[in-house]
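Could you help me review a protein record that somebody else here produced? Do not assume that whoever made the record got everything right. The record follows directly below this note.
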Amino acid sequence: MSDLHLYNTLSAQKERFVPIHDGKVGMYVCGMTVYDYCHIGHARVMVSFDVIYRWLSRYFEVNYVRNITDIDDKIIKRANENGETIGELTARFISAMHEDADRLGCLRPTSEPKATDHIPQMLDMINTLQSKDLAYQGASGDVYYKVANFPEYGKLSKRKLADMQAGARVLTVDDKDNPFDFVLWKSAKPFEPHWQSPWGLGRPGWHIECSAMSTCCLGESFDIHGGGHDLQFPHHENEIAQSEGATGKQYANNWLHVGFVNVDDEKMSKSLNNFFTIREVLQDFHAETVRFFILSSHYRSPINFSDTALKESHTALSRLYHALKPFEVVEIDETVWDGEHGQAFVRAMNDDFNTAQAMSVLFEVAGEINKAVKADDMAGGLKFAVILKTLARVLNIAQTAPKAFLQAQIGDESISESEILAMIDKRKQAKADKDFALADQIRAELEEQGVALEDGRSGTSWRRV
């Protein structure tokens, strides 16, 4: 696997990937704070790292860890608003998160540690940081990380602490030594969940949770740390400061960050009323269409989410399914990886998991299928169908029955299947009555609503276009 190169945010360049332990990879991805349904930005992180996980697993034994934050200010606030316990709230949204990820075709991570199960490890790390003069307790009872005592602070985001201090408009908090010091342990407030600690009753800060869970599950140094681009600073920067400050070792060798999701060219935000949950989107679009949309761009690039973009993705993915349609059963054949198209696909994926380029290979293969079918060379068409199905499996697309996908609804205004079938029956009767003008009119009406009819020996089939 020496040909795999990935873009490392830490070095700001592509590097050949070499795992710490031969044949094994440890990968930690920042997961969800479970107080609400997952949104389309979460979907991009889920799907992007699912494909990275699948590709790495072809060559390595991968320990994929994605944490769950189940204690947080937002969680406490939402539970109080709902009149339910924190445990009830988080259990409900963990279940919803799994439902969404499963529908998007994502494999479950190797493990999903919860923050509340790792309080002792967090306390140990904070103790170590305090013993190294990297943490202190303020007058409020909160414990802070002392960023000035970690010379490499800012190395991931390429920011210098002195520059940030000079240009920042930050009100100094009374018990902080530096306005950029961040909380490790929050002192308990009335009626909030808390744990016993050397600094009194309290609960962990957000950043320390990931440092403790990642090192607990993967060791003090591991191969890949990932998450959304928005986490690069301050969350991931703070993780480095905590972990490397405590252990004196490099924390993660490679940092991968998934690009932003914009909605109609604007940043997704509840305040802008352009915030979409995964389950809202899946009400109107096939889950594989959403997955295809996400993978049609390189994971580091920003993408623009819109109904139009999803409809275009559905149309593009339909081309692959339409190519596979003549072949009801297509077996997987791993030997295709040694062929021309297989090697082109491998080169794309080994170039920083370039799914967009890999998909272009799939469309080339689909073109070969169509040529063979047009020439009535069904054996040749089947050969290329096997190639398409095998390569696409790594992306987990084009794996369902073509008919089911081609008839899936596109958008919330699509004509329903029952309406389509009723019009097909009406057209059939019109043809029987030799009213060919009416039959042609019905075909045209369906085409206007994005439905194509195909007449064959076995009757009329249909698909959305």
Q: What stands out?
A: The longest helix spans residues 355-374. The chain has three domains: 5-262, 307-407, 417-464.
